[in-house]
Amino acid sequence: MKIEEHIKNLFIAPDKSNLNIIEETIALFVTQMLDYLSNANSSAPLPLFRKLPSEEFSIPAQGMDISAIQSKLNTLYQNSMNPANSRYLGHMDSIPTVYSILGEMIASAINNNMLSLEMSPYLTQLEHHLIQQFTQLFELSPETSGGIIVSGGSLANLQALVVARNQALNVKDTGLCFNAQIPVIFTSEASHASVVKSAMIMGIGINNVTKIKCNHKYQMDLEDLQDKIKFHLAKGHVPIAIVATAGTTVTGSIDSLPEIAEIAQKNQIWLHVDAIYGGALIFLPEHKQRLKGIEFADSISFNPQKWLYVAKTCSMLLFKNYPAMVDNFRISAPYMKEQTDFINLGEITIQGSRNAEVLKLWLSLLSIGTDGYRQLINHGYNLSHKFTRLVAKLAFIELITEPETNVICFRIKAEDTNQQEQLNIALQEYLLKHGVFVSVPRFNGQIWLRMVLLNPFTDENIIEELCRYLQTFYDECDT
User: Does CATH place domain 113-355 in 3.40.640.10?
Assistant: First the structure.
């Protein structure tokens, strides 16, 4: 069957024969996208959920024309989370840099596969050299360190723990079936859910993730860590890893990394630092000391898709001993051309076929630079300080802890627990009605309001406005 001409015009002809049609098509959709993003403050930061009819998602027999597809996209825009709104304060969702949007488009256009050097000759080299620069920023040894880029922080944490498991138990070849010893992972009560999920996937089991208590700053309690390590060693269990966190999801807290590193070294346990969020502090000389001790980690996960404003997804995983990681993880693929200069990245990552996440990161770094990132990250700190100063004057508001990053948890005080929950859930709804979105995580069995001050267009006026809403809500409840 011959391909109809209008079908061919849905692809970019390599001889420019349909270039005018393609340019017109792209222009229409870019204009629609820019109209949505540049008017983001006119739409709610979080739309009310509505269940759409199944017909909305039906696959047609005949392809739709441009206007019909744009109509579908209008429905998408209207029903999507809207982090571009400068009053979107609820989650760790940054607005993407223009260059990372372009990077995503260019990566899709060239459609290289990060599986192998042959299938992505430039991008493989780019990933290698960019990773080397990040190992230096994290002060890992340039002689032995290295890493990879993956699609999301959960994958980064999973691969780090797989490598740690394989090294601790020597089970890369035999698997866990013949392992008589019980493996355990130590992590704080405030750590990310991906640690427990990784244990499930790896065959270690959810019950063998030992949760360490948190102190008043929601950092891992060092005494409890040491006690639980002693307990499991006495039982003959095998510690796989200690997972410390630099920027917890709910409170933004950073564990005491130097002390945890010392405990890990003393007990010869792999130290993984989940710096998914807080790792961006490597760009700020005035705040980098908060990450002191991270250079002793065996592995580090970090998400540029958060505080570096790169479009989802983009995460990196760094190893102090890169050759050992390769030995403990690599599965050769005979269908890929053997390489000597640059390893085929698909052989040392969980994913085989991989998107070029590195391109949008690189373009963002090229366009913003380290000085620009310093300004962006400091902006979040300035807003955080502004908010804490203002709420200090509101006697009815309490903070979960003094913020270490731009993540702040707060709530209205109340003596009755049930009343307190109802009040704070109502407060979130009240703020949303006034165009401000903060999230309501449940942490340690209690409801808190959380905001993440990421958006470069969120300013001090919005923080002042938020505090006025807090006062107005409280006054209305009091009456």
Answer: yes
